[in-house]
Backbone:
């Protein structure tokens, strides 16, 4: 039994991976007909059940940042997960993006410690088959995301450099998951909601009610992609 994710019941081979445990609860209540908590250890809330069409699904929070996400993914792989979609939030690097936009991550740039330690410094692609499923559903606009260890900025903003490298959004987990997934035999994709924009260099954040509605839309799209026959 893994030391951090301690499921009280068998988990599904398909999983959604939000960072926020509260968001995991919201998605489980929305997507699963009889959601049952499968993990509460370390505050990493997870739920397992079936969708309306009978598709087994686990919704497991990963916590914030690449190290926590990597631990959770490693243990989910040990427990039998074989496909997973991160459903998270991001800040805009591309100034044309708007609050509430849904993005489909085609590749992630490694600016976080986990991805740098495990990879070769090049952009890491999402799993092609999962990406094709999301694209077929029209789930999100295509984007390259940059993964970083920092939510707040402590130096001059690197957003200009990220934009020059082809990134449209910035977040904290996708590249670590994309890098680790193939090593573990888990196919990974990612949907992101734009929750922060930076007009004039100042952070503007999405309203909570609008965020909740957008998260539910994102969760439906990800669950539908996993359930496609």
Residues:
């Amino acid at each position: 039994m893994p030391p951090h994710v301690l499921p009280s019941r068998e988990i599904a081979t398909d999983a959604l991976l939000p960072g926020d445990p509260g968001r995991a609860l919201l998605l489980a209540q929305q997507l699963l007909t009889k959601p049952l908590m499968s993990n509460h250890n370390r505050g990493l809330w997870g739920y397992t059940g079936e969708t309306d069409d009978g598709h087994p699904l686990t919704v497991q929070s990963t916590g914030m940042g690449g190290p926590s996400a990597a631990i959770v993914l490693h243990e989910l792989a040990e427990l039998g997960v074989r496909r997973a979609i991160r459903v998270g939030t991001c800040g805009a690097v591309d100034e044309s993006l708007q609050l509430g936009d849904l993005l489909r991550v085609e590749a992630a740039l490694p600016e976080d410690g986990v991805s740098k330690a495990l990879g070769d410094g090049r952009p890491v692609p999402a799993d092609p088959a999962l990406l094709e499923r999301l694209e077929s559903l029209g789930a999100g606009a295509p984007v390259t995301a940059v993964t970083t260890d920092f939510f707040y900025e402590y130096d001059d903003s690197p957003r200009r450099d990220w934009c020059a490298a082809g990134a449209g959004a910035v977040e904290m987990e996708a590249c670590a998951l994309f890098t680790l997934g193939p090593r573990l035999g888990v196919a990974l994709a990612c949907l992101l909601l734009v929750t922060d924009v930076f007009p004039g260099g100042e952070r503007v954040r999405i309203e909570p009610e609008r965020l909740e509605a957008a998260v539910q839309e994102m969760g439906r799209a990800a669950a539908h992609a996993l359930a496609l026959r």
Q: What stands out?
A: Helices lie at 21-31, 66-78, 113-118, 128-136, 159-164, 174-184, 208-227.
